[in-house]
Amino acid sequence: MKTLHRVSFSAVLVLVAGLALPFAYAQKGPGPGGRARIYNPATETTVKGTVEEVKTISGRHGWNGTHLTLKTADKTFDVHLGPAAFLKEKGFSFAKGDQIEVTGSKTEYGGSEAIIAREVKKGDKKLVLRNEQGIPQWSGGRRR
């Protein structure tokens, strides 16, 4: 009888740990493998340059994010735009050689300088990705 209680207790313990683990993992902070990068208006900058590469990055929850490698006059930045579906919905696409202007929060990501884009200008078109506090447009105005 005591063995049955121990087995039942162990099974419940494993079940609780299995249910709690995803919630603990979701609390990870900024950076590689983190849940979200925080937009900091105090580090906002505007840069102009040429798109060197367009990358689609697969996220943990099945979304695909669009990143650009942007070559400016004196630096190269990884520019984090947002979900590929959001860009497509807004009728925006990027290609190698495009001349763009990016306004966003400068940060370090993966050991190199990156910009979390708030808006991107390409020719006479402007793509607004986040508001001035950095809240993504695709989130419906809610911080994630």
What would your notes on this structure say?
The termini are far apart. A five-stranded mixed barrel has the order 1-2-3-5-4. The chain has two helices and six strands. The protein is α+β, with helices and mostly antiparallel strands. A hairpin with a 4-residue loop joins strand 2 and strand 3. Helix content is 22%, strand content 40%. About 19% of the residues have low confidence. It has a domain of 97 residues: Nucleic acid-binding proteins (OB fold (Dihydrolipoamide Acetyltransferase, E2P), Beta Barrel), CATH 2.40.50. The longest helix has 25 residues.
Secondary structure elements and their pairing?
Blueprint: H1 2-26, E1 44-58, E2 64-71, E3 76-83, H2 84-89, E4 99-109, E5 112-122, E6 125-128
Parallel strand pairs: 3-5
Antiparallel strand pairs: 1-2, 1-4, 2-3, 4-5, 5-6
In helices, the fraction of residues equals 10-25%
The CATH architecture of one domain can be named as: Beta Barrel
The CATH class of one domain is: Mainly Beta
Uncertain segments? 9-36
- The 3D shape can be described as globular
Terminal CA distance = 48 Å
Helix vs. strand class: alpha+beta
Rg over CA atoms: 20 Å
Mean of all residue-level pLDDT scores? 79
Main beta sheet = 5 strands, mixed, barrel
Q: What is the CATH homology-level superfamily of one domain? A: Nucleic acid-binding proteins
- How many DSSP helices? 2
Residue share in β-strands: 35-45%
How is the CATH topology of one domain named? OB fold (Dihydrolipoamide Acetyltransferase, E2P)
Strand line-up of the largest beta sheet: 1-2-3-5-4
Number of strands: 6
The H/E string reads: HEEEHEEE
